[in-house]
User: Fold these one by one.
Assistant:
Number 1:
Amino acid sequence: MRRWCDATTLAMVVLACGTWPTAAMAGGQGEDGAQQPRVIEITASRFEFTPSEIEVLAGERVRLLIRSTDVEHGFAIPTLGIGETIPPGGEPVAIDFVAAEPGRHRFACSVFCGAGHDRMNGILTIVPAAGRGAQPTAGPDAVADLEIDVLEPDFNLIALPTTLRLPRHKFAFRLTHRFSRPLGRGGFGNLLEDFFGFDSFARMGLEFRYGVLPGTQVGIYRGNNRNIQIFGRQNILWQRGPSGIGLDVQASIEGLNNLREESSGSVAAILSKRLGEWASLYVEPTWVGNVSKPGRFHTSIDDDDDDDDDSTFMLGLGARLRVRPTVYLIGEYVPRFTGFDDGAHHISFAIEKRVGGHTFQLNFSNSLGTTPAQIAQGGSTDDWFIGFNIARKFY
Ligand SMILES: [Cu+2]
């Protein structure tokens, strides 16, 4: 009878999932009546887990038996708080847990094991017990939002926003620095003495953003020129969907003297497109009001310039190229079509290193601008500035 039960359970699960992996399973009742864990054997070898797709039922006790066929690996399911090291030599490591949270849980190798380490991952799906056989659809949800997206690892390119979603009730932090010393001034010896401008006064900004709802984030960004920007962003199309196209809308308001002075509003559509495994492109039509406020930011604006060209339409163009698994080259160009047209159009280049979900970026720009109103004020026609961004996610 027990044998029959097990066979039926197995058959039902196989029918239900269709893609049941070659895993050894032992379910059912033990001698003492307690449920025995479902045992799933997984091998780790450079650079894959076999099987890489696992499905269990919510409420089930699960034992993963993981062994390495070559070097040391790691096995981590961040969303379940699981992380173990898998030693070389084939000795299995047992990980026991109760499958509590229905959904798709990404697992990945957590010990660097070579060039393909970044793609050594898989999915553990916990199917709600009531909806056995109902495949949870892939899409933007709490679980997917927690995963690192290697093509869109951050909420910004250099100054322009991206379409990366912030998980609900999580927050992220960003620090921007733009050194005010023009790189071309006074010859190279002079520049070296000033350590590429790092000695100079820096325009700094601190940003916090928070996920209010899935796909909805709000944030505040304050510069040390006492400019405060408050923004909200709503995701409409998920870039990691089948089309590879992302769409967000962002509205923001910013003002000097901690928002006490006349403020400037902006509305932007952020359109993004993934290209294979190596690039993400951006087109961002943006309207910014009340741009020519003197002292807001740009050196080229005279104090008596506060009159016309206040309403500006610009097109943010950007690209992030993944040149190494965790290294990116980024470019931004923001031509303005109507309104404020002093100076050159904003141009920036950057090289960025990703460590997990965190990024460090060294950038070069013809402006010190990091907010919509600052970008709308354009850049210098002959000076370049160095700067950096640091972004940190708290999830
Ligand atoms: Cu690895």
Number 2:
Amino acid sequence: MLRRNNNPEKQNPGTINMAVARKLWIHCNRCFTHFVNRQSIMFLLACKHVICEKCVAANLGRTPSDAPTYKCPMCQQLVRGRQLGNSMPSNLKDMFHPQPWLDGIHHDVVDTFQRANCDHLDKHLKEKSKKLNKEESDCKLAKESTYKHYMEYRRTRHIRKQLEDRARQIKIQARLREEEELRRSSLAKRRKSPDAAASAALQAIVDGAKKSRSRSHSPAVPLDTISQRHRSPIMRPTITSFEQRANHSFDL
Ligand SMILES: [Zn+2]
Ligand SMILES: [Zn+2]
């Protein structure tokens, strides 16, 4: 017996009773929605395909009594259909009987119908399982690759930090060396400056002494000697002076 509001997920999460388990094979042949989930209305089409309302559109008849037709998305036939439920005609409802042999139903047709649906669902589950395994394998590879890249990133970041530290040290050393060079240069200039000043002062003293000596002994020094010592770019005429010899031979 098919009942509404019999959702196992809502009533007993994690457990499925036998009545529900016997109806798990009933599914939309196109999108694999399970009938027991009660997520959408389902139809049994005359072509023996079970289809949900999301996968097929009804072509309404010209009069209210005219039964709708459906274009089966599985076999493309234009067929009549009946909604799955307790209001189905008895011969159609028997197709979904969980134990047809107990009620004396001629169950060869029913068995064939239910077996075909079970095989269809089983094939789909195997394909899903295969796809899931592939995705799990891809996820594992992606995870390993991501971890490898992450470790590489960490190594690279460590190396970069080391290089930045080294660059900072080199800059500091270069600045210290530059400052040392400036200090030495400045010191050398300071050392050189007093010597030059001292030698200039000494030269000035020597020159001054020579001048004073030449002024005090000017008569004894010949003029030509003076002229030689103090060479001047201006050529001066030679002046002949009197010879100053004492003459005591007569009184003047
Ligand atoms: Zn569907
Ligand atoms: Zn069909």
Number 3:
Amino acid sequence: MRVLVTGGAGYVGSVSVRLLLQAGHEVVVLDTLERGHREAVDDRADFVLGDVGDADAVREALCCCDAVLHCAGYIDVAESVRDPEAYFENNASKPAVLLEQMRIAGVDALVFSSTAAVYGEPDAVPIPEDAPCRPVNPYGESKLRFEQAIAAASQSWGLRAVVFRYFNVAGAWPDGSLGEAHEPETHIIPRVLGVIRDGVREFEIYGRDYPTPDGTCIRDYIHVCDLADAHVRGLERLVAGKDGCVCNLGTGKGWSNLEVVQACARTASVSMKVTFGPRRPGDPAVLVAGADRARALLGWRPRRSDLGTIVEDAWRWERGGRFGAGRKDVTGSC
Ligand SMILES: NC(=O)c1ccc[n+]([C@@H]2O[C@H](COP(=O)([O-])OP(=O)(O)OC[C@H]3O[C@@H](n4cnc5c(N)ncnc54)[C@H](O)[C@@H]3O)[C@@H](O)[C@H]2O)c1
């Protein structure tokens, strides 16, 4: 199949592009490079510099495609609170142009990068897919709006979509050649590994008075390679003519922030002083996925999502200098 990957120069998109190519598929990437990296895009993929809100660029990129993987978007919760309009525009209004162009081109298969942020503060954990969606920030709200646009397109013209609600994505391509490079970085694993790489031996965790065993927040981490594998399976399912679905992507097991910092220090063979700051507003105590549906519908199993493997892969990427090392050699698979 030929797949249009929007946001294919970003973290999740670039790993997914490489895995799709390794699985024998053709790929075209559409990305503004506003928050992505041209060097992250595999040389074997076609590349269109453009915006998902630009009908001409989307039309060009969609040519001869069987399916779309829509990863493009803004992802910073704090930024979404400061500038909600930018998030509604980029994560909901512009992608509506993508949907319209898919309808016109007759491409009816879509995999969408959604987020656990659509759930907001859960009533219970693990969170099943049919839990109420009550996002608590504009980022989650903007992603939910596009989920609703997908549902409307499914009703009105027969779009089939696999909506993946990611929990905390982490890790890197196992040889350290592709990974997370957000600016600013808000995710805990690259932040801890980044300070360790820079020689700092102290890290502040937000809050230690949550109702959890060690008092710090608990999150469900999913390796980016396992996520990419789910994408390939979702796309293949749709192109085989099957129905869409909404699936969480997580492991069903949580790790506390303190455990994450300790795992990073262990992997990097350093000792870290942990300090505790105030809670960050809007952080639920525990977010863990009900993770059975993706297993049942897609035959998907996370293979690299134990915390130790995630951190080791992420450390190889950080220690190797990210793109700075100029690596194009790929040793092994995901
Ligand atoms: N990384 C996570 O932990 C996480 C968790 C949950 C959901 N997600 C979702 O996964 C997706 C990818 O996340 P990521 O971590 O790879 O982000 P990223 O910032 O690394 O990549 C996003 C890419 O999209 C591009 N882009 C943004 N707006 C665009 C537009 N209008 N047109 C074309 N390109 C555009 C950026 O230039 C960038 O290359 C996002 O949609 C995000 O909401 C990510």
Number 4:
Amino acid sequence: MLRTPGIERDRAAEDAAFAQSPIHDFEHVFGDAAIWGFSNQWKALLPTAPRMFGGVRRGHQRVARALRRAGAGARVDDPTELDRLIRQVARDAGLSAIGVAPYDERYWFEEDRPQVVGDRVVVLILEQGWEATQEIPNYHYEKSEFIAYGELHERACRVAEALMDHGYKVAVPGNPSGGQGINIHFAIEAGLGQLGLNGQLLTPFAGSRLRMMTLNTDAPLPIGAPVDYGVTGLCEQCGVCARNCPSGAIRLRAAMHRGVRKWKISTERCLPVVSQADGCAVCMRVCPVQKYGLQTVLDHYAETGEVLGKGTDELEAYQWPLDGRVYAAGDRPRLTKSFMNPRALWGFDASRQTPGRGGAAASDLIPDPNGAAHG
Ligand code: SF4
Ligand code: SF4
């Protein structure tokens, strides 16, 4: 099951892709599509908005207060001691995992690069509820996802506050989804997990049943390293997410993309489903790693040569929210042409690299209660 730690890279191709077209925030490039997606998610968004945006607001207020105190605590120069202190703050805040990766401009959004303050990226992870995830796809899960974003933001800002109190600068994301760059890249480089066939970060403790957020900082925290947890080898034998994805958005063959060998999800096939079917996320729901835990799945494979749960309804069956039917293992709902290509997405081109019509980002429509929250 073991392969290469982290992800296979062609450094020259990564540099060339960055020089040709730096990475932008999805919402900046596809503002119209993002707003259309949000408008479809109102059923889950409305009841959870106070908790989600409340968490973001409280987090920003915490960071703004720390900024006013301007390094009130004792400066800690020793990386090991600083690491110990910050990990304790993360634990006390109820975060599930923390890791540190080198800052890499190639994986930071163009629109967030002016706020960069240092050469480290702190990755913070909050595990999502197990029960709600097993109900996917439905709007109760979508609600738990939105609430998790608010919770994560508030808790992660406690880590930012601690770093600032110890005399360091921190750049905090302004949007609820916690992104200033490609979070998965930094999580892999920090050794927190590996890329799964479903295009998500698979951690050993929760698979992809999680939300994550990144902070940029100049704090001299020890940097982690990629780890091979056995995910790549497992995915090669599993394929359960691809078999059950309603739209066939998950490709079984890995290919080089911007200098990185990866399984790349088809955005054109995923976006209509995720936007119109209660957030979909079937690919997270049917993954044995999120349900049973990585070690259990690896042990089972070592003993039997089989992927735990593969082919069983216990793992793979799900109720489709649009027709109420339960689809057995490997069976998938039929999606019509008009569902897969709604009028709102006519002309949507996932290969586009720069902001399109209007250039407005969905996140620009969400007021940041404290303005920029950067240390
Ligand atoms: S969210 Fe749904 S449509 Fe998108 S890749 Fe996952 S299973 Fe497929
Ligand atoms: S369902 Fe299987 S193939 Fe897909 S990400 Fe999970 S372990 Fe990998």
